[in-house]
TrEMBL record:
It comes from Corynebacterium phoceense. PANTHER family: PHOSPHATIDYLINOSITOL-GLYCAN BIOSYNTHESIS CLASS F PROTEIN (PTHR43157:SF31), PHOSPHATIDYLINOSITOL-GLYCAN BIOSYNTHESIS CLASS F PROTEIN-RELATED (PTHR43157). InterPro entries: NAD(P)-bd_dom_sf, SDR_fam. Keywords: Oxidoreductase. Coiled coil: none annotated. This is SDR family NAD(P)-dependent oxidoreductase.
Amino acid sequence: MSDQTASKTIVITGASDGIGAAAARKLQRMNNKHTLVIVGRNPEKTRAVASEIGARYHLADFESLGQVRRLAEELQDLGHIDALANNAGGVFDGPFRTADGFERTWQVNVVAPFLLTSLLREQLTPDPELGKEAATVVQTASVANMLMSNFDAADPNTFQNFSRERAYGNAKLGDILLARYLASKGLNAVAFHPGVLATNFAQSGTGAVQKIYASKLAHRFFGKPSSGGDNLAFFLLGTPGVHFEPGEYYNDKRRPGLQRPIAKKLSVARRLFDDLGRRLNVEW
C-alpha cells in the first residue's frame, strides 16, 4: 500500500450503503486525516454515513446527468483529487430510456461515471507545482462481465435483446473498458470485482438477480460488504505498478480477473468513449 500516513483527498460514489460505505469507514479508520467525500442518492443514508465518519457528503442520482454535472461543480473547491471511486451502480428492470436518452443500467453504471470523471479531469491530472501525481480512478466492475454479458459495441445500451442480467453484464464490461480508456489518457485507472456480497445494490427490480440478493440465503452465504470495501480501499490507496497495473481488471482476490476478450481491446474502449465524449461535450 502507499504511505498510509499521507493524507489524501478521496471521493467515493455509491457510498450511502454497501461497499462504498464500507470503504469509507475503512479509510477513515486507517487515517482520519484523509479528506473523504462521499456521494449517495439517498439523503438519509448518505447523511448518516457522513456523520458517522466525519466526512463531507453530496447527493446525486446518476439517472440524471444534470445531477452529475451539478455534482462536478460542487466538487470544484476540493482542488486536486488523489483518488476517485466510481462505485455507484445497480441492476434495473428495462429497457428504460432516461431523460438523457440512455438505457438506465448503462447510464448509471457507465455513462454517469465517465461524465463525472471527465468533468473532474483537471482535478485528477498531475499538478507538478503542488507535487501531485495523476489520480487513481477505481471502477467497481464485476465478474458479471464474464458471466452475463453479450456485448455489442454498436448497442452498448442494450436496447436490443434486453434482459436485466445481460444489461448489467454489459455495463460491468463497460466499466472495464472505461478503466482501460482512462489509463490510456494518463490516469491510474483500474477496475475490480468486489466479490459476491450481501448488499442492497440489486434489490431494485423484479428479476432473478434481485430475488437472489433479497433472499435470506444471500445474507447467509454471500460475503459481507466490508470485504468488498476492503478491496475498494486497497485499490484507492494502492501504488500503480506495484499493487495494480493501470488499465487492468482484478478479481476479489486482487489477482487478474476473468474477462471477455472484447473487454481487453483498447480500440473498442476508444471507439466507445470517444463517441460518448463527443455526445456529452466532454472530449478527452
